[in-house]
Write a structure and sequence with these properties.
231 residues, alpha+beta, Immunoglobulin-like, 2 domains, 5-stranded antiparallel β-sheet, 28% strand, globular
Length: 231
Amino acid sequence: MTHSLRRAGAVTTTAAVALLAFAAPAAAHVRTDGDPVPQGGYGIVRLIVPGESATASTVRLTVTLPDGVDLTSARTLPVPGWTATVEREGGDTGRVARISWTVTDPAGGYGVDEFRDFSFSGGPWPDDVDSIALPSDQAYSDGSVVSWNEVAVDDASEPEHPAPEVALVAASDAHSHGDGHGDTASARHEDTETDGTTWVWPTVSVVSLVLAVAAIAGLGLVVRRGRGAGS
């Protein structure tokens, strides 16, 4: 009976570890969250950036606007303990090329069990595409940099370092029709970590519950069989 109990426990533990291994990568990269922005208009982009290094803290995020995305305006939402810089091409009136957030004190970076919300309002966005990839560099306190700059070639593939993508919709379908200058991300979004894969954790919870019930039932069966064999 002892051997059976150990085997049942091992099976349950292995299944739980496999579930966690499946779920973790789905939430372990830089991504966007929130409403899509209007094509040809202004909107807010919210970036969710989790810490991924177990030995160093995140100290900087740099987002690059690709060619063809000619934002003339970009305003960042203040993040306590961080400074933001908007870089332009061709002087003060040129297109926005990069947006960077840097921690003011390297000791104030955040670790693997934390995330930060970096948001900016900008436009005008292109009016002829449905999405735009925003290559992003995540820098750590040990000097290492992870580049989130890969784009999936099709719906079935998942790059190792996917670039966050901004969804664009026709202005008539957008949730906001203003120029975005008076908006703040804190007013439009809750301070929670969510993304397009919100089904993952509820699914994991349900499956974990089913596994737990099955393990308890299996243990009960083993115990009953042991008692029957001993009588």
